[in-house]
């Protein structure tokens, strides 16, 4: 079964990612595709957390942590490659 | 087995997140990431690390104690992302404004320089007008009517104004396309000559290299020179004739510019120009040629050709 805190966390992440996408599209913030990919990975890890409560617990549990690993990788790449010295 | 794998995945995530945190701190210390953005980024990574630690402890079979706080930490991350985005937006706005300020102050300086330059040129041009009037007074010829004297004066002043008219139409104030102002001067002279000459069929032709540009100082002097030579040609070259042509040519070769104004009229004694004392027009042509550090010569072969060679 799903837990309410997991759903709440997912809602927060969806709102955060939507806001990031909206602001990026309006060029209100600098575009950082790698950082955005990291946020999407965390979002998907939240989705997997909820799904694992219903079906394929082990598979989705693994996917959840793999998504978190990918997010960490994207964070590191984003910080190194995208945030460079300002002109 | 799966728990073991997940534990190692969490260890890897923690290692990468720690590297990210170090990278953020390094970039913040170098001023690449602004301090406030670095703090929010650091908090995001720190919470992520906390989540990974909780997962590691849980899946490694040590304790599920952090599980409750883990979700709470995860919920806080999007909030900090929003704050981070806002701080980044503010920094990009500040950068943009600073850039605009720099551009504006550069433009302001440029405008100040231009205003000084304009005052200087107005003074110079008024001096030129005074000099022309002085020359007219000293070289007063009983045979010339007031109308002709005023016409000559008008054309001379117009030749200066044509240069500024061309400046207004160009984007770059520093250089003026020669073809444009020379054509304006030619048209003005052709319109302003006395009726009896205007009724003759005198064609005005141009053979001007469009790539030739001049600075304002050069253009004003050259414009007056062109005006004098064309006016002379209109007034004197076709006495006793009903038709003719005047061709203005301007070419550049090996850094030397050649202005050549040719008419197919009755011709003129070349010494009339060269001794530079007989008429006011001749005096002006001599003086203006010297002003642009040029040499001029007159040839009479099937008409008159006045050629001026100068450096710019």
Describe this structure in words.
The complex is a heterodimer of chains A (87) and B (312). Chain A is mainly alpha-helical and 87 residues long. Chain A has one domain (4-82). Chain A has helices spanning 4-25, 33-52, 57-82. With 312 residues, chain B is an alpha+beta fold. Chain B contains 9 helices and 7 strands. In chain B, the strands form 2 sheets. A 5-stranded mixed beta sheet of chain B has the order 2-4-5-7-6. A two-stranded antiparallel ribbon of chain B has the order 1-3. In chain B, helix 1 runs antiparallel to helix 2.
SSE inventory with pairings:
The complex is a heterodimer of chains A (87) and B (312).
Chain A: H1 4-25, H2 33-52, H3 57-82
Helix pairs in contact in A: 1-2, 2-3
Chain B: H1 2-29, H2 35-59, H3 67-138, H4 146-169, E1 176-177, H5 178-192, H6 195-198, E2 201-208, E3 213-214, H7 216-236, E4 243-253, E5 256-263, H8 270-274, H9 280-291, E6 295-300, E7 304-310
Parallel strand pairs in B: 2-4
Antiparallel strand pairs in B: 1-3, 4-5, 5-7, 6-7
List the main descriptive attributes of the protein structure presented here.
heterodimer, A: 87 residues, mainly alpha, 0% strand, B: 312 residues, alpha+beta, Heat Shock Protein 90, 2 domains, 9 helices, 7 strands, rod-shaped
What can be said about this structure in brief?
By secondary structure, chain A is mainly α.
> What is the radius of gyration of chain A?
15 Å
Element-level helix/strand string of chain A:
HHH
Gyration radius of chain B, rounded: 39 Å
Tally of separate helices of chain B: 9
Q: What does the main sheet of chain A amount to?
A: none
| Shape, per Cα inertia axes of chain B | rod-shaped
How many E strands of chain B? Answer: 7
CATH domain topology of the largest domain in chain B? Heat Shock Protein 90
Distance between the termini of chain A: 51 Å
- Overall structural domain count of chain A: 1
The averaged pLDDT of chain B comes out at 84
Q: Total number of β-strand segments of chain A?
A: 0
Query: Looking at the structure, what is the overall shape of chain A?
Result: flat
Strand order of the largest sheet of chain B: 2-4-5-7-6
CATH class of the largest domain in chain B: Alpha Beta
- Low-confidence spans of chain B: pLDDT under 50, at least 5 residues? none
Broad structural category of chain A: mainly alpha
The CATH homology group name of the largest domain in chain B: Histidine kinase-like ATPase, C-terminal domain
Helix content of chain B: 55-70%
Q: How many domains of chain B, as an integer?
A: 2
What kind of sheet is the major sheet of chain B?
5 strands, mixed
């Amino acid at each position: 079964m799903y837990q309410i805190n997991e759903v709440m966390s997912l809602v927060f992440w969806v709102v955060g990612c939507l806001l990031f996408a909206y602001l990026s599209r309006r060029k209100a913030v600098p575009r950082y595709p790698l950082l955005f990919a990291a946020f999407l990975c965390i979002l998907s890890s939240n989705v997997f957390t909820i799904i694992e409560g219903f079906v394929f617990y082990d598979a989705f549990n693994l996917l959840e942590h793999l998504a978190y690993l990918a997010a960490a990788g994207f964070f590191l790449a984003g910080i190194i490659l995208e945030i460079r010295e300002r002109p | 087995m799966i728990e073991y794998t997940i534990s190692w995945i969490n260890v890897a995530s923690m290692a990468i997140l720690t590297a990210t945190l170090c990278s953020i701190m390094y970039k913040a210390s170098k001023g690449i990431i602004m301090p406030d953005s670095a703090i929010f980024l650091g908090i995001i990574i720190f919470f992520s690390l906390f989540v990974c630690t909780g997962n590691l402890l849980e899946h490694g079979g040590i304790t599920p104690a952090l599980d409750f706080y883990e979700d709470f930490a995860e919920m806080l991350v999007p909030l900090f992302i929003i704050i981070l985005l806002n701080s980044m937006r503010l920094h990009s706005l500040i950068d943009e404004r600073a850039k605009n300020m720099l551009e504006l102050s550069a433009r302001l300086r440029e405008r100040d320089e231009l205003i000084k330059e304009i005052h200087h040129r107005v003074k110079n041009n008024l001096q030129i007008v005074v000099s022309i009037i002085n020359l007219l007074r000293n070289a007063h010829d009983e045979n010339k009517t007031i109308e002709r004297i005023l016409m000559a004066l008008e054309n001379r002043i117009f030749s200066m104004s044509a240069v500024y008219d061309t400046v207004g139409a160009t984007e770059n104030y520093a250089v003026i396309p020669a073809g444009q102002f020379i054509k304006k001067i030619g048209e003005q002279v052709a319109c302003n000559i006395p009726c009896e000459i205007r009724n003759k069929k005198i064609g005005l032709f141009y053979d001007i290299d469009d790539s030739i540009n001049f600075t304002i100082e050069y253009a004003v002097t050259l414009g007056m020179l062109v005006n004098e030579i064309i006016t002379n040609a209109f007034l004197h070259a076709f006495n006793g004739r009903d038709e003719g042509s005047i061709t203005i040519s301007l070419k550049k070769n090996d850094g030397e510019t050649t202005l050549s104004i040719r008419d197919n009229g009755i011709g003129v004694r070349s010494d009339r120009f060269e001794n530079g004392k007989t008429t006011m027009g001749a005096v002006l042509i001599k003086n203006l040629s010297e002003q642009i550090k040029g040499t001029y010569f007159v040839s009479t072969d099937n008409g008159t050709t006045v050629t001026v060679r100068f450096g710019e």
